[in-house]
């Protein structure tokens, strides 16, 4: 039974092998037939291609000459020699002029346009245009006999069938013998294969013979062992692959998240210039509709999917050609869009192995806001924030330019200085808001009087200047007179009172009154004071004979007044509260110095009148020492008061041992050193950076806190913070006065607050004069505030009670409180 099953299997194997052989040979015969037929068809087509030029060459000239006899002879000879079934020649009018093998009265068969057909027809009908020198003279209709193709195809097919029959016979014999021989040990090998399929590799087959079957059995055993080892390695490799795939997937996820979170648009193209990847920011920058598939499209065609319109498409196209032709990183290129946005572009070639470029990375960034911010900073650097006129910095540049142009071209010029008469009285009486409104009105009126080539600037406070190029004295005095008259006609009403504005204008001519900037400015300023001395509301051209005596007399008078104030104890200290921006609780006080008039002690002179003279004469150091001593007394008398801030001038930086004197004074008074806050103006500190650094370090070593006053007035304010390690920043009042209505000031105050917070410094906003400004600075993160909205400077501040108030009043010249 078992032997019968094996024999049956053998015969089935032999039969199956024979059937497979027959099928394969049949396929080979059919394929050979197809190839032969195709080759013959190609021969026929080649023959047609060869015959066409020959027939055209032989028939064109006789047809053009209407030589009918020659045409008939040529057709008959061509039919006989070339195996053509028939030929019919028509002229360009369609009339038959010659024929061979066809009755002209019979209709011609339709021409076949796609070459000889693969069917049983023995003839191929076609047409040939007869042309000579590019001109068509007629058409040749002819039928090509395909009988030779059929005969050749039949012969080759018979040969293929005979060869196939021989191969089948031989294969049957060989397969039968081999199948019968090899199937002896199939059962054993089959059983072993089943065991391997079940994963049982521990039972190798015994090798009982040394023939091919023995070798096959040995190979089977070796294969079994190799499969076992391979499966083991494959399992280990699969585990490693899973780990690597997981790590790669996580890395791709992190990279994808990073690229998606970036605000910079990224496009990667391959070597062929097709888009491989774009991140979401790229689509946002170019406003490409969501869902647009860019991958696989040419990278330079992305602009077609964007609704953005280029302001200069020709410029952009030239840049693209230059970039794609280069093999290095491109320079940054700015693309201007029609909607006003500005997009920067930079590209990097991506290199693979062997430094071969495999693509290019395109990086785009919308720099509109950054450019606008830079332009705003430039505007703020050269413009006055209140009036919008040029500031002192830009005025100095324009003055230097005018002087250089005048020297080079030999032209004249004029400088006009003017300020508002009694402006300090209005500012101090009605507040800064009234003074600012007055300055804005005056700037507007003066701006209408200057020409486009003239420069109007606000130098600070109520001081203005006008540069007039290529002007003589008559033109300068005419403009000065117009300014005086225009200002005097400005209607100004505040708190129910009509105020009359007047101005005094000083004129200095170039080169008559100076060739250097400092000299010309000094003389214009002197001329302005000469106009004031003449009764104000007037203008004057600089007169050297009046300048020196007036300045010297005024300076000497103020020096004497300051000296007498120090000797007679006429200095007074007023205090203004500094409050927390959010809780609005008192943080500390700021000390402000005043001078009592020696003739009327109830009348106080504000520091703007005498501090500058004191700084020039060096008397400011004595004033600083006096104010610090009074503040230490107040701190000692009021231990509950957190701190008092004191302004120290730049001249005090050079005073030897002043920081040590302050420390000794605090120690003797029993006052904790951190309760005294020393304020330094930014302009004073940066004018002599090294002295300021030493002074600040000495104060901080002793325990005093240091505040940088008027922060933001310098062009590089943030840069100085690296060198001036202060504890607090007081934002300059020019950024706070119009904060609710000035967006530029809002940007700068917010930036100062954020930078200070990052550097762990306290911020203070001065000139807070209304509730809206207070809420706004609090929202911007400013820590402390001071201003008339919260508190006014006075000697008997509510925070000073008992002994502290008595001490303050004694320092103010009043009687001690009971």
Question: Briefly, what is this?
Answer:
The protein is an alpha/beta fold and about 800 residues long.
Low-confidence stretches: 1-6, 802-818
How is the biggest beta sheet arranged? 8 strands, mixed, barrel
> What is the strand arrangement across the widest sheet?
17-18-20-21-22-23-24-25
Q: What class do helices, strands and sheet pairing give?
A: alpha/beta
Oligomer: single chain
**Distance between termini?**
138 Å
SS summary, helix count: 23
Give keywords.
single chain, 818 residues, alpha/beta, 8-stranded mixed beta barrel, 5-stranded antiparallel β-sheet, elongated, disordered N terminus, disordered C terminus
Explain this structure to me?
- The structure is a single chain.
- The protein has 818 residues and is α/β, with parallel strands linked by helices.
- The protein is built from 23 helices and 25 strands.
- An eight-stranded mixed β-barrel has the order 17-18-20-21-22-23-24-25, surrounded by five helices. Strands 6-5-9-8-7 form a five-stranded antiparallel β-sheet, with helices on both faces. A five-stranded mixed β-sheet has the order 11-12-10-15-16, with helices on both faces.
- α1 runs antiparallel to α2 (68-82), α13 (517-533) packs across α14 and α17 (658-668) runs parallel beside α19.
- Residues 1-6 and 802-818 have low confidence and may be disordered.
